[in-house]
Amino acid sequence: MAFSATAARTRAGQALRRPDNWVQLAKFSAVGLSGYVINLVVYTALLKGAGFHYAAAATCSFLVAVTNNYTWNRRWTFHAERGHVGWQGLRFLVVALIAYIANLALLTGFIALGLDKVLAQAIAVMLVVPLNFLGNKLWSFRR
């Protein structure tokens, strides 16, 4: 058991020292920021403008943002790891759905605590970013 923990720390340390991983993280963050803005704009428009229930608005905004993020991450962030568009897309969708479920659980919890629905969505989306990045880096777009 100690060997595997040591090996994991060594691999993590090596990964942290590779500049290309930091460049990928910066690109993923830029794409994520665009998706974050898209998510909040669509969410707010559907929630306040169209009168959608917060869960329905979150679902629709998720679908729009995930489409944006997949496109840009495939073309820009992880362009060197381009595999079959269908398989990468399916893996990306699985990771995104896991992040979406976590987001919806956080959103529901924050709203139950009395937070404003838009603020709750803004916080929930930010909290699932690490899960989303790791899932996409290590699985969706792995070499």
Structural summary, described in words:
By secondary structure, the chain is an all-alpha fold. 85% of the residues lie in helices and 0% in strands. It contains six helices and no strands. The relative contact order is 0.13.
- Helical region count? 6
Mean pLDDT: 89
How many strands, which pairing sense, and closed or not: the largest β-sheet? none
Residue fraction in strands: under 5%
Class derived from helix and strand content: mainly alpha
N- to C-terminal separation? 27 Å
Topology, number of strands:
0
Shape: globular
What is the alpha-carbon Rg in Å?
17 Å
Write down the secondary-structure element order: HHHHHH
Low-confidence stretches: none
Helix percent band? over 70%
Labels describing this entry:
143 residues; mainly alpha; 6 helices; 85% helix
Q: What's a concise summary of this model?
A:
This protein is mainly alpha-helical.
Which secondary structure elements does this structure contain, and how are they paired or packed?
Elements: H1 2-16, H2 19-49, H3 54-77, H4 85-112, H5 117-127, H6 129-140
Helix pairs in contact: 2-3, 2-5, 3-4, 4-5, 4-6
